[in-house]
Amino acid sequence: MSTTEVAGYDLVVVGSGAGGGTLAHALAGRGLRILVLERGHEVPSEAENWDPAAVWQALRYRATERWVDGAGEEFQPYTHYNVGGNTKYWGSVLYRLRREDFGEIVHRDGVSPAWPITYEELAPWYERAERLYHVHGDATADPTEPPRGPFPHAPVPHAPAMVRVIEGLRAQGLHPSPLPLALVDPGLPGGCRLCNTCNSFPCRIHRKGDADVCCVRPAVQAGVTLWTGARVTRVLTTADGSRVTGVEVERDGRTLRVEAPLLVLACGAVNSAALLLRSATARHPRGLANSSGLVGRRYMAHLATMMQGFHPFRPNDTVFQKTVAINDFYLRGPGVSYPLGQIQSQGRTHGIMAKVVGDTWFRGTVTWIPVWAYDAWVARGVDWLAMSEDLPSEDNRVTLTEDGRIRLTYAPNNVGAHEQLVREATRMLKRLGFWKVMTASHRAKNTTHQCGTLVFGRDPARSVLDTWCRAHDLPNLYVVDGSFFPSSAAVNPGLTIIAQALRVADHLRRTVLRLPEDAATGTAAAHSA
Ligand SMILES: Cc1cc2nc3c(=O)[nH]c(=O)nc-3n(C[C@H](O)[C@H](O)[C@H](O)COP(=O)(O)OP(=O)(O)OC[C@H]3O[C@@H](n4cnc5c(N)ncnc54)[C@H](O)[C@@H]3O)c2cc1C
Ligand code: SF4
After folding, report:
1. d(Cα 120, Cα 125) in Å, to the nearest integer?
2. CB 483, CB 496: distance < 8 Å
3. Helix, strand, or coil here: 136?
4. Pocket mutation for ligand 2, best pick of 197, 206, 348 (most atoms within 8 Å of C-beta)
5. How many other C-beta atoms lie within 10 A of the C-beta of residue 459?
6. Which protein residues are within 6 Å of ligand 2, measured from CB?
7. Which residues make Cβ contacts (< 8 Å) with residue 71, sequence separation at least 6?
8. Could you report the per-residue pLDDT of 1-44, keeping only the tens digit for each?
9. How far apart are CA 492 and CA 490, in angstroms?
10. H helical segments located in 228-349
């Protein structure tokens, strides 16, 4: 296969999701020649976007590649390759980490390490991230809310049935608060319709606050070049291994070498680590940026259990249900000194989704239950998610198989605290009068909240990236996806990835690119790092 050389870009960004899309947008329109390489394509606007059978049964938008687990078993990861990355399917719950999450926290089964930056250092970019992604919320209601100003938009109102649930939770002495949600003009003409196919579905009308809508589209309008169907297979370095020179890309059956004085990876925590491992050279035999030996290690993903409170005589007419959080057990559980995690209301489960989960649950032995029976069941259920922190372990890691595929070796930890959270949530739902509480979990195969594989820190022996997400070993290589997390915390990761991408973009603008603060246009040339 012949190789074509491509040059002339000041900055190449690999991946167009939460990290890459945001960073490209933040540096767009300033005279820089920016190229975004995205292995997937744009998600088409089509009827299937909101069809539970297409999304949950046919897995129409899921990545089709297979990874292997630590035991060598193949599985299809819960991830998506397309413009906007996984943000196209997210539930739009955009939390700041709690202030305490930036410090060391003792958990039931171990220690959640401190971050090398404080909440206060990241707070200005959290604020910008919330504005950029249209986040709606209430800064006064959550007992764990870190110090902050008001949200850019008022919270999404609760549906009447959820108001009754919230009253019941308050009667239990709990402090339910509005979920912070990234939605464009919810409930307004032309805005988000507050429908029941949001979490795990792409938005057919582009009113979800995702990286495609909020960043990639406007960045392309501002002059950023986006190549779709462009899979980066290697990061290239100089002969002495001291700097990155560009990337090798496969596109339309051709291999291209794209040169770049400055390279930002944002492939997601698993793929960025795999890419660095795949890029090993004689100078970097263990993979690029891997002098610490930590590339791919400390993979985390949250312990998450989907829960449903069921009552046979209480039909649930709520359409948009995902508006409430309970953080009372976030910092410590009842009667214990350690954290349990968070409980969130979820989008409505559809019968077909319940059947897919049910069929897996019964391990394929009870597949005869018809969809209408599941429909009748879920019409009487209220859906929740219980989520706990996953603690970093060097044995939970991304490696490559001999034929270059991704191997994800992972054993969940902090399981006792999570089980306690599920028990608390079950008690809470029973007190609300639900007859039955159902639970289901993706367990070790949940890759949706992947993070931690290229940890950032101050000590090059104990981290891969510095506090600006620059590789300690390679001065012109940055990584801005979920891989930099030293701990997973127990809130959704997206806003923190976005805030750090904005912080890194500002750093690049000031130091490496030396662009003026407010230049919206111009011809400022990029200087190499
Ligand atoms: C169903 C679902 C619901 C979720 N809900 C929430 C939520 O409510 N709140 C929240 O905060 N988080 C949520 N998440 C998680 C959130 O989407 C991720 O944390 C976030 O998108 C990660 O950002 P990222 O930049 O690390 O990676 P991604 O957003 O996944 O972007 C990575 C991009 O890189 C591309 N890529 C990968 N490899 C290559 C390569 N070799 N060459 C070129 N391109 C490549 C991918 O195609 C992708 O576009 C959810 C995730 C899922 C799947
Ligand atoms: S209309 Fe609103 S609730 Fe429905 S998918 Fe789009 S963003 Fe989500």
Report:
1. 10
2. no
3. strand
4. 197
5. 10
6. 183, 192-195, 197-198, 201, 203, 205, 207-208
7. none
8. 568 888 889 999 999 999 999 999 999 999 999 999 999 999 99
9. 7
10. 269-278
